Amino acid sequence: MRVLGVDPGLTRCGVGVVEGVAGRPLTMIGVGVVRTPPDAELGHRLVAVEQGIERWLDEHRPEFVAVERVFSQHNVRTVMGTAQASAVAMLCAARRGIPVALHTPSEVKAAVTGSGRADKAQVGAMVTRLLRLDAPPRPADAADALALAICHIWRAPAQNRLQRAVAAHRTLKGRTA
Fold first, then answer.
1. Cβ partners under 8 Å of residue 91, min gap 6
2. Which of 38, 47, 89, 107 is deepest in the core (most CB within 10 A)?
3. Which of 39, 50, 54, 141 is an active site residue?
4. Active site residue 107
């Protein structure tokens, strides 16, 4: 399974591609950030994020895109930029028919470190270890994108089984009604 992880942001949008299956060693295919100038007009920044994500999709051909689920923060301006960049990533994937999964920050931290309250340094250290890298990816947005991809690879089989069970239950329930 090849997954593009996206840590959405307007100034720095982390992107990372990981390949592998749950229970086996994972491989980092690529990592980086899509940057936009903070003083540029919002529309131009969103176009730059879109073009950057499109380049990653073209180059790496992921089967899935995992995006950090936007959650409420104290700074509304930050949340809006994150939500907008997140929507761009989802749009780019949907346009190509690539399934998108949203994972919360605590879900990603728990999957990668074992604690939903892990800090950025802990996430970076575990990403480095899990992908057998020489050093943690920089900036932290890049490491977070890889963590999202890892989380999805590890959680997708269980989520797929759960979705199939729910669908089967609904079908069975529909027959008995």
1. 50
2. 89
3. 141
4. no
